[in-house]
Design goal:
By secondary structure, this protein is mainly alpha-helical. It has a domain at 34-124: Orthogonal Bundle (Arc Repressor Mutant, subunit A), CATH 1.10.10. The chain has helices at 3-10, 16-45, 53-62, 69-76, 80-92, 114-138, 140-153, and strands spanning 96-100, 108-112. It has a two-stranded antiparallel sheet with strand order 1-2. Strand 1 (96-100) and strand 2 (108-112) form a beta hairpin. Helix 4 packs across helix 5. The longest helix is centred in the first third of the chain and has 30 residues, at 16-45. The two termini are 28 Å apart. The model has no long low-confidence stretch (mean pLDDT 88).
Length: 163
């Protein structure tokens, strides 16, 4: 029995009509956690040991042409101060840089450096490794079906860390 299934078994207060919903919700959360853990471990194994999963969520936004502190804060659903602190940390580590904003002289544009792009590529490889393990369990066809199902039911919008 999987760990998350044992948690469901312990919670006998769940009415039968809610069991499927709870099983799906907990299973999806556990799968999401497995992705975060797999990417984190894969990025560290590829030489980027000074990062946390929250940094990856920032990289996701910055990889789409950069962002201002305000845009990064909105993406991460944190205060501007928290986003600025995260940016300062990533600048100090060499993953991002501040550039002049082409349309707003008051703002700075946060952009990935070559080191940031290398880390992004490492994360993409770690995602592929994580998902490949799932294919070994359920097969390639079912994995493609699952991806299609999730694309139809998952809401759009930014991927944010679960603080």
């Amino acid at each position: 029995m999987l760990g998350w299934q044992a948690v469901l078994m312990e919670n006998q207060a769940v009415p039968a009509e809610n069991a499927l919903a709870q099983s799906l919700a907990v299973g999806l959360l556990a799968a999401g956690r497995a992705v975060v853990d797999g990417v984190s471990a894969g990025v560290r194994a590829r030489g980027f040991s000074d990062l946390r999963p929250a940094h990856g969520f920032a990289f996701t936004r910055l990889s789409r042409g950069g962002a201002t502190i305000t845009q990064l804060a909105e993406h991460l659903d944190v205060t501007r101060q928290a986003a600025a602190q995260l940016a300062d940390e990533l600048v100090a580590k060499g993953y991002i840089e501040r550039r002049e904003h082409p349309a707003d002289a008051r703002a700075k544009l946060l952009m990935l450096t070559e080191k940031g792009w290398a880390c992004t590529r490492a994360a993409e490889a770690a995602i592929a490794d994580t998902v490949a393990a799932w294919a070994e369990v359920i097969g390639d066809d079912r994995l493609r079906e699952l991806a299609g199902d999730l694309a139809r039911i998952a809401p759009g919008g930014p991927l944010r860390p679960l603080w």
